[in-house]
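Protocol step 4 of 6: structure prediction from sequence.
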Amino acid sequence: MIAAGGAIAVSVMIVIAAAEKSAEVNPGASNSVDRNRLGASILFQLMLAGGASSDTAMQTLRRVGYISPVTAGIDIHSWSTRYAHVSSAEQRAALLEKAVQIVSATGRPVPLRQYAALLDLSFGLGFQTDALAKLREQYGFDYVDHAKDARPRSAEHRALFARETRDAATLLQILGLQTGADRQTIISTYRRLVLLHHPDRVHGDSESAQNEAAAKFIEITRAYESLMSIYRD
């Protein structure tokens, strides 16, 4: 088994070396190498956010075809922005879908921290629509804010984003907006609010602060997704 593991490691190193050599010979290939590294690191960090071990995350990357060095501990939003600069619209969409495929493959509800990472990825890639919500519906998975990620006790055992029954005016008020706000205003306001109430901002704070931020994060995100289905392009 050790020998087999060593063989796999050597094979991966050979593939990486070949890709890097190709980039040196053909400068046009450098963007491809950089894009693969960015994409692999983003997906790696996304899996860690969901509780996967580093070994499991690396195995998953190899299984889905990402054979590239990764950098741990990255900021997903900034790295996604970098990825957007060296990729086409189709490649950006493919990365987001691959991320959703990976997190939904477990068959378990996605924890809040990982959902926040998905949001960071979606926004960093430059999507201005409800792309993530559409993929959620396509792959049929729920988001649940587990207690370890500051889930408020009042939300125990409750899946997020059940079908919304409140009217648009009420949903707009949740985002601090008045009736008549357009789609772009809703998007920009949500971006500001989600950064303000991002779980990482209060991770490690008092239990009450974590519960309050998590509850607000859930509320504004549910309202935002519902508004996106009302205010379509």
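Step 5 (inspection) to follow. DSSP finds eleven helices and no strands in the chain.
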